[in-house]
Batch of 2 targets.
Target 1
Amino acid sequence: MVSALRREWAGAAELEVAVDGTALRALAYPALTGRPQPGDRVLLNTTALALGLGTGGYALVVAVPGRLPEDPAGPGHRRCLPCLPPFIRNGRSVALPGAGRAPPT
């Protein structure tokens, strides 16, 4: 749940969120997720944060359930970014020591 809006800058918002009684910093991109407000439940991706993968100490807001982002003003269209999936799960990789080889395709 969003506890507080800490600060905002062009295209991003830093939030304080509570997860199981623990305070975390989270980063939201309102054009993609909608604008989270204090008291909102948010869906977070914490995998990279938990693994120490250079998130700057932020969890990533994936969605604000029940609320879509606002439609952009003016002409144009939206573009899907399939190469940037919001749900990244932890798994074995051939790049990790001791991970073994990838199965043949």
Target 2
Amino acid sequence: MPHSEKLLQRETLGKNRVFTHERWQVQLENGRTAEREIIRHPGGVGIVAVGENGRPLMVRQDRRGLGRGATGSYTQLPAPETGLELVCRLLL
């Protein structure tokens, strides 16, 4: 069953050319209030390359901010870029 929250207040904490960091105060279904920190962005597009074995091609990235210990290693789709050069680099 879907849950809903009513937005009571929104505060912009920071903003750059890509992201907006906001703090929301919401009312929960049970009447209590809670805070949410939200990162808003305009969205993006990705291309998923698939290997001969039918599995998506992934890259291992250093992402210490995700709290994955000393290595900070994380497997993800290649980072988004723009243009035909990206498609050629990823797929060829």
